Amino acid sequence: MICKNEGVCRFVAESEALAQPDQVVWIDGSEEQLEELRRQAVATGEMIKLNQEKLPNCYYHRTKVNDVARVEGRTFICSREKRNAGATNNWMDPKEAYKLTDDIIRGGMKGRTMYVIPFSMGVVGSPFSKIGIEITDSIYVVLNMAIMTRVGEKVLDALGDSDDFVRGLHAKCDIDEEKRYILQFPEDNTIRSCNSGYGGNVLLGKKCFALRIASYQGWKQGWMAEHMLILGIENPQGETKYIAAAFPSACGKTNLSMMIPAEEYRKKGYKVWTVGDDIAWIRKGKDGRFYAQNPEAGFFGVAPGTNAKSNPNALASTREGTIFTNVVLKDDGTVWWEKLDNNPPKGVCNWKGEPWDPASGEKGAHPNSRFTAPARNCPCISPEWENPEGVPLSAIIFGGRRAKTAPLVYQSRDWQHGVFVGSIMASETTAAASGAVGVVRRDPMAMLPFCGYDMGDYFQHWLDMGKTTDADKLPKIFHVNWFRLDDDGNFIWPGYGENFRVLEWILKRCENKVDAKETPIGYVPFEDDINLTGLDYTISEGHKFGKDDLHDILTIENKYWLEDVANIREFYAKIGETVPKELRNELDAMEERLKK
Ligand code: OXD
Ligand code: MN
User: Fold this and answer.
1) Mean pLDDT (whole number) for 391-402
2) Which of the residues 60, 250, 328, 464 could staple to 364 if both were Cys, CB 3.0 to 4.6 A apart?
3) What structural domains and CATH numbers belong to the chain?
4) Centre of ligand 2 from the C-alpha of residue 227, in Å
5) What is the pLDDT of residue 3?
6) By the 8 A CB rule, do 131 and 165 touch?
7) Angstrom distance (rounded) from CA 118 to CA 391
8) 200 Cβ below 6 A of ligand 1
9) Does residue 3 have an active-site annotation?
């Protein structure tokens, strides 16, 4: 491959001079080249080829035991001014950050190969897509990037001689956690990652680019990069409406994005289509509506808990061309993880490669073990998922895990109030599962670890986006909470496919087909407007879900909300003076309404 782009050539040459690899290999995106890399990774033991009959083209990888998750404490926004990283991000001076990582990466690829991956976030050539160049010394990264993004020569062709690309440099070094850094330089379109080999830290297209750098770009350029799934709901008449939804990590975004509607709806002909499970880039379209695009090409999903009941579509997505990381490798060359089924394999090793006894109570798969699966494998992938224009959004949903506070669903009063609802998003730690109300962690728009600039400025950007079009063209904003608990710690709402009942109400609200009850926090459904036909769910022994339970989870207890107001004030104070006054006013107004 010949590099014709001056900026790309310079970036590669500088990286080569710094890291001093034995050789440089450009990823052209061809199947032959990827196959050769798989062969090499298997030869060195970096990957294991799985049972090709049962899992064709699937591979297995174990990370180092000290390298199994994103490291928020070692993730920095390196803006020139500290103020622009904001109070909720770690900040490092860019000069210091370059010097620090120059010293760590210098000579770090000696004896290794440096791979250059041209990749596109979004369909190659779409005016809404963005290009990056990731340099890495890990074949595992190359092969994952080839699933999660669009890679190869066609990306360089689309870039032409433009300098508008993100420079990502990843060096494994010694996987030394004391020298692990994940650095974003939003003003320089640059990412550096060293001493990790784990997904979210090293697949630079995902969290580092498509959220941290892209959120900054969106702020400067008038669009939005959000931590949101995108799904389409097709009604029996064949019309499809689209929804984007933000939940904190580990609240079931992948499950919701691929949900199979409850039987009651399936038999009427409703369908859910997946457009994306983690990230949405949102722009105003020519018609003034907001359009969402999934910039990724694969799913980097948490394996444990994924099964034929919880998410058959995700499971089906992993049956071909998938890389499994830190799950249990079975004797027959297939894989296992907790809750896949009730038959943990015996006489095999755990994710660390140590002999493991399922009866010991120890987990076989790491709780954050993953599958990297091509989105095109997903049985319910939307026919529109690669539409270069994106899909028009009818609604945006925020959500969290709250034992008592948030009702099953409520709607914001308008866009500004909706931004407020997003800004106060929160989840409780799962201590709540034992009945105790857990510790509240505020995670505005699920972006706390992913916003590449000041959180107050980010809220202002949301407010400003709402002023770019007519109010009736804006998506309506809702909040859901699937996780209300009874006093014994049981989930009151069944979740999964039954969540469709709530989505139905949301779409009816968008179409002005149903009224709602005004409350201090927003609009809540009238009980009769959530369809319970065919719902058969046992909350606890002898207690089936009924109207009373719906009443409970639609009820707002002012006492809890007033406690929340105090917690929100503290959180806003932490973000500081940049929190827009409109949102402070919304908080005051809500408190007033609650006290009345
Ligand atoms: C993810 C996350 O991996 O949000 O998607 O942590
Ligand atoms: Mn995520």
Assistant:
1) 97
2) 328
3) 6-46+71-221 (3.40.449.10), 229-297+385-595 (3.90.228.20), 298-377 (2.170.8.10)
4) 6
5) 84
6) yes
7) 26
8) yes
9) no
